[in-house]
Every structure is written in structure tokens, then in C-alpha cells.
Amino acid sequence: MEVLILNQTQVQELLPVSECMDVMAAILKSLAEAKVGMPLRSVMWLPDKRGAIGIMPSYALDLNIMGLKIISVFPGNHGTDYDSHQGAVMLFETEHGRPLALVDASAITAIRTPAVSALATRLLARPDAGDLAILGSGIQARGHLEAMLQVRPIRRVRVWSLPLDQAR
Hints:
The protein is an alpha+beta fold. The chain has a single domain (4-127), classed as ornithine cyclodeaminase, domain 1 (2-Layer Sandwich). It has helices at 8-14, 17-32, 105-124, 139-149, and strands at residues 4-6, 36-37, 42-45, 52-60, 65-73, 85-93, 99-104, 131-135, 156-160. Strands 1, 2, 3, 4, 5, 6 and 7 form a seven-stranded mixed beta sheet that branches. Strand 6 (85-93) and strand 7 (99-104) form a beta hairpin.
């Protein structure tokens, strides 16, 4: 049994946001057709509330896979060398339950979340929409800007962030 393992750099190289938009369009369509299942996530906080672990299972019948995203959330990591959200995505095939892949969740999330926002913008915003507002300047901000530039002719970007000096 061979399990594919992908780190952050490999995910970034293999999953461009433009392709992720197309994949997410297909997944969201399958979700609407009940071919994808995504039950509510489960979160367990440490007793002192300094951190939590979140578990997000899903399946995609069309793809014959099921998976689990598991992340740790440590808000106190802001301003340190560690991300506040860290984790992995585990994929399994649905015929025998064999593990297929273990993938860095931070990299997937940094690509997938902006891709879904850009997909929604591509489908719902006016074609000439050119003003973009980004709330926050964290890890998602740059990814959202890059994704939006692929679907609209952005003329002006406004960023709101606390502290203000981080809104660059």
C-alpha cells in the first residue's frame, strides 16, 4: 500500500488557484446533487482554551473517496513562527477504505478558500466589478487578492486590518 504525502510547497506547486476554482465548481455542484457529503465539523477545545482541534469529514461518491481534514487551532500563535491553524487532510478510497494521501491542510486551505471566493465572484458579481475590499491582512488576504485578479479586472483594493500597519 502506497500513500501519497504532500507538504506545503508541493501543494502550492500542484494546485494553482485557477484549477482549484474549477474543481470547487464541480464539488459544489455535486454537493447540491447530494453526491458529496459534508457533516458538521466537530471541535474540541483544550481545558484551558489555549487551543482546539477541529475534525471535518466528507465524502465524494463521484470520485470514490472519503476524507478527513483535521486541524489544530492555536490563536496564541499569531506573531510567532507557527501558523494559528495547522493540520492535514487524509484521503481514503471508498471500496476497501485504503488510505490514499496525507496532505498539508494549511496549503490546501490557503488555496481553496480564495478559490471558492473567486468562483462566487466569477458567477455572481457584475463582469465590470473592479473594487475589492479585503477584511484582514492575514494568510488569506494575499491569496484572495491573487484569486480575484483572475476573475475580475481589479482597479482598486481596500484592506481593513487591525493593527492598521499590517494592511499593506
